[in-house]
Design a protein that fits this description.
By secondary structure, this protein is of the alpha+beta class. Helices cover about 45% and strands about 20% of the residues. The protein has a 5-stranded mixed β-sheet with strand order 1-2-3-4-5, sandwiched between helices. Helix 1 packs across helix 2 and helix 2 runs antiparallel to helix 3.
């Protein structure tokens, strides 16, 4: 394995989104479909306050960490710049999950964020065939290094209660 850890380019958002959909099954974002997730990940790559770190092996994205300095600002940018196209492609799925969409757009609410930093590691995923080989640790280390480079300070991570990894 010749592992390369680096910042993703816009064209690498789709394979990172696919990893999210395959490996992060809790939450509702994966239910909105690959086109929606790809558009969200392209916004993360393009947003100056966000970034996507990827692990590449033999030209293939096998791991990723999606991060932002301010989730509310990222969601605003996504809705303003990508919301119409992303929404049109996922209308039936969004309508079925409307309460969860509103909940996600409101996160973090005032009660959730009282003592928590704005910066967040949004998602970390590794291809199943490469799991257990340190890929997740490598992309997370690179993400934390990027947060340090940006002088972000504290960073939060939210994980499902049954997420042993």
């Amino acid at each position: 394995m010749s592992l390369e850890i680096r910042s993703a380019r816009a064209e690498e958002a789709a394979p990172a989104a696919a990893l999210h959909a395959q490996r992060i099954t809790e939450g509702f974002l994966p239910t909105l479909g690959p086109a929606f997730l790809s558009r969200l990940y392209r916004r993360i790559v393009r947003d100056p306050g966000s970034f996507l770190v990827i692990a590449v092996d033999d030209g293939r994205v096998i791991g990723m960490a999606a991060c932002t300095e301010d989730l509310s600002a990222l969601y605003r940018a996504f809705v303003l710049r990508d919301g119409v196209l992303a929404g049109l492609r996922s209308v039936p799925r969004i309508l079925r999950s409307l309460p969860r969409v509103v909940e996600t757009l409101r996160y973090p609410g005032a009660e959730d964020a009282a003592d928590l930093p704005d910066a967040e590691v949004l998602a970390v995923a590794v291809d199943a065939a490469h799991s257990g080989r340190g890929v997740g640790r490598a992309v997370l280390d690179a993400a934390l290094t990027e947060f340090d480079r940006r002088a972000t300070g504290a960073v939060k991570v939210v994980a499902g209660g049954d997420n042993e990894a």
